[in-house]
Amino acid sequence: MGIQFRKVSHEYSFGQKGFFQAINNITLSIEEKNEFICLVGHTGSGKSTLAQHMNALAFPTSGEVEIFGSIVSSKRNKKIHYNDLRKHVGLVFQFPEYQLFEETVEKDIMFGPMNFKVSLEDAKTEALKAIKQVGLNETYLKRNPFNLSGGEKKRVSIAGILAMNPDILVLDEPTSGLDPQGKRQLMDLFKQIQEDTLKTIVIITHDMDLVYEYANRVIVLNDGDLVYDGNEEDLFHKEELASWSLNVPSTIRVLQRLKTQFNLDINPFQKTVEQASLELKRGMNR
Amino acid sequence: MSKVKVEDLTFSYNQRKMILKNINLEVQKGEWVAILGHNGSGKSTLAKTMVGLLEPAAGHIYIDDILLSEETSYELRKKIGIVFQNPDNQFVGVTVKDDIAFGMENLCFSKEEMLENIDFFAKKVGVFDYLDKEPSLLSGGQKQRVAIAGILAMKTDIIIFDEATSMLDPYAREDLMKYIKKLHEDGLTIIMITHDIEEALFADKLVILKEGKILLEGDKSAVFHQPRLFEDANLELPVALRISNELDGAEFSAWKEYLWAYSLEK
Amino acid sequence: MKNIVIGQYVPGEGFFYKLDPRTKIISIVFLMVSLFLLESITYLLIAFGLSILLLIAGKLSILRILKGLKPIFILLIFTFIFQIMFNKEGTLLVNQVMRFSVTSIIGIFVITVIWRFLAKYKRFNTILFFLYLAGLYFLLARFNYGAVLTTFPLMIYQKGLEMSVFVVIRLIIIITLSTVLTITTKPTDLTQGLEKLMRPLKIIGIKSEDFALIISISLRYIPTILDEANKIMLAQASRGSDFTEGKLKDKVKQVISLLVPMFIIAFKRSEDLADAMESRNFIPGKPRTRIFDLKFSYIDLFTTGFTLLCFATSIYLKVI
Fold this sequence. Notes:
The complex is a heterotrimer. Helices cover 38% and strands 22% of the residues of chain A.
């Protein structure tokens, strides 16, 4: 089940002005269990387009996407209720302002589930569960979403999708614009959700430090092509990182400098500051 | 004589919550000051009061030693400009040329002078080839540069950047920082509002805000020697320094020195 | 990908591009009034001929102008038919009995299906349409098989035909004139032209500079707003709000889920923009210089003269 991409391409055409190949011949498979995937690539590499194919918001110009058993191709199939697929794959967009519209946080979170024919009572229960899941307490439910801070709005928009109980959660740059603490809190939250529910989470991001620390699988797009699909450890050993416009995570960068400067016997591939300092202490004792 | 002087500034939208409390700050000519703080610390409010967009509840702002007030704001705005966070919401013109001209038109520059300035500053920020293009065809980074050109064209020599890079991707961010660095080399006074420590490393002086008050002030070295206060302000030190702070023991001193030098270089 | 460009302006060369926008605006107004003053079809046809000559002189592509007529094609057809049916003056030109029988109704059904099926060959659209009309006529007028259900007489009178041709041609000339305006004038020039023309309204308290600024800012944000609307629809579709289906009650909610974010974003935008403009020394009402200045030249004088001549002629023709 899950999401299967088979030779998917998406072309935007502008009539006489030509066309733009957003994604090119992508084949990959996303299971609904236990993957913490980071989708990375330079701006314009096709990440958002790829994400929109995951819940049938966009249709491929060639190839097909199988979403939980339903096949989405360039031709509209009258038998498939594309809207239902969005129950299985929840996509949270980057800016909460594009999503929040109700008078209370509770009503806004309930919008998603109720569109999928969940009863009023059940939707309220889901809203309560979701608001707690994103680390905000019940009192937020009766508040006006427009009076919240940026970080709080982000969490409410995420709660709105969580309340739909999707099998796969896809988030487009969820940490952008947040301060360092906010970033960390949000990523820990996703890790928590992933561990509690065992569902798959896909995060589109530019922050390689976060990718290295949290992901167990990384998909790299470059100019619309799929250039890497593997674990986070191997990725940062690759020479092509610069040509893919990816930065080296800070911890690796710093340890590599130290290693070169002082000719140290250490493994620079450490994910956190704590692990890095431990490795350095070990290195001192060798 | 300082370029910008903030004296005992206090600001609030209503009586209940003080956004800024007794802020005292001086920026010298040609200095690059970074104002750091968590979301909600009052940094953007401070920026807006410095250009007279918001009126303080108490305290004063002096630009080139002239008190900023409703009467003087028109004259003083010729000296200080601000680039905002959202590249789209500050682009007034129908084309790049129009937008760069906007400020000069307000100051009644002559047509010849405006056209000359537009060409000169568009070249300076690298948008000359886009002069007749509409904003919808530009990237976020390009729009920010157009904003800079428009401000420079007004012969402004103090520029405030209010989280001007936060809506840009890492490459556009790096790119914009390079331009700002060039401006600083040309002698402009730069006030940069950010929560990104990597950007703040370019600055001569760092000011840390927490909940409307200045927690800490000084050059990079001085500020980094107080990691507790840094964390208190919900900010993160650069990774190299955080690693260094975890290493205690005399045997690590050479490495720590190196990590410090690495952090302070930019 | 944002590639929406404002307006229908198409860069080009020629007479019309060199005219000052003010001349174009005033001329169009006067020419349209002149058109409406004309009463006889002969003079209208002369005006039509003149328009075609002008287009050729101005090196404008007639094909492009015709494309400008596409949106109102249906309106033209409707107007034509309407005039013919309801104008019963003059000599009777056509008197044809139209028969509805079971077989002819089946026939109509068949040719309609064939027409719609062939509609995908867009290049033959107009030919197919007229073939369809011919087919309808044949089936209703000449098809003499089957039991007759009902009949009605199709009567076309001379006056009716004249009037419908008149009205349609007049519409065509008017649309052509405005298409010429929008194709040859940049939206910014148009705004500036309107601004300068509206200066006299200062007497009744309307500040034309502010008005022009409002228009140009609105124009500038059209692509941005369209893009945002699209993103909002995607975000809400992600939550199950599919804009292509749903009952009326759902539709209301769907529209609200689109409009509320758009308004909120628009309000934030106006606050931010006001801050940006104020920080760049903008003061509403205070005089400003401009980088672009509109200048009249001989061409404008000539055009204005020509327009006034047309106007005078129509008045003269009306009065005599």
